[in-house]
Amino acid sequence: MYAVSDILSLLLLLLLGISGEGQASPVSPRPNHLDARQSTPTTGKYCNPSTSICYLEYSWGPTIPVYRVAIPDSASSGAPFQTLLQIVAPASLGWAGFSWGGGMTLNPLTVVWPNGNTGVTVSSRWATGRTQPALYPSATYRTLSASRNATHWTVETVCTGCSKWSGSGSGGLNPSGVNTFAWAVSKTAVAQPASTASSFSIHDDVGMFSESLSLGKVPKATFDAYVNGGR
């Protein structure tokens, strides 16, 4: 026989398990969230030894892309500057998104997806509500590299217009302090892979992270040479 106190304790544990109380999570859970990830996300500094470019890096296991951001060390608050974004996504994903302002709405969104056997399409988007983000011409991208194989697809792109934005969602990045970024992914392929204006399905998983962009600062001369092809 179980004591009344034992039964009450068991009920409490079950309620906590259902509600999620007592469990810290950096991700907003969704019914169809992706699994097979490491227990907690990590952020840190990643340096590519072959290019001398260091990035702020975010990773969270094999089903979530690795996101890397770099900026020139000359960047200052209040003034626009170029941003370098690298995404390494598992081959199972149909698209991956990155939010420069930490949420879906009122900030620049970078949405990327595989296109053909080796290509990756980069689309500039902006959302004013919980609907399909519209094209955002105020942020432009130049793809530095893109590749695709049996396990991953990768893209690196430089953005002009992702560090500062205006309008009702006026804001921008702090190049020397902590910033909050967000991401979203889906396993469903987009409707028109070759078109930057393609529609795409709702995300299967979302998350956010906060970290200092100081981890991704690159000497200006090195940054400029890299993004301009002088590698």
UniProtKB/TrEMBL annotation:
Gene3D superfamilies from the UniProt entry: Cellobiose dehydrogenase, cytochrome domain (2.60.40.1210)
SUPFAM superfamilies hit by this protein: CBD9-like
Residues covered by region (Disordered): 22-44
Ranges for domain Cellobiose dehydrogenase-like cytochrome: 46-217
Signal peptide limits: 1-24
InterPro entries the record matches: Cellobiose_DH-like_cyt
Top-level taxonomy: Eukaryota, Fungi, Dikarya, Ascomycota, Pezizomycotina
Keywords of the record: Signal
Record's keyword annotation contains Ribosomal protein: no
Protein name: Cellobiose dehydrogenase-like cytochrome domain-containing protein
Pfam families: CDH-cyt (PF16010)
Species: Thermothielavioides terrestris (strain ATCC 38088 / NRRL 8126)
Taxonomic superkingdom: Eukaryota
